[in-house]
Amino acid sequence: NQRLDALHKISNQITNDYDVICFEDINLNAMKQCLKLGKNTSDNGFGTLRTFVEYKAKNKGKYTVKVGKFFPSTKLCHCCGYKNKSITLSTREWTCPVCGTHHDRDYNAAMNIKKEGYRLLLQS
Question: Residues with Cβ < 8 Å from 124, sequence gap 6 or more?
Answer without folding.
Answer: none
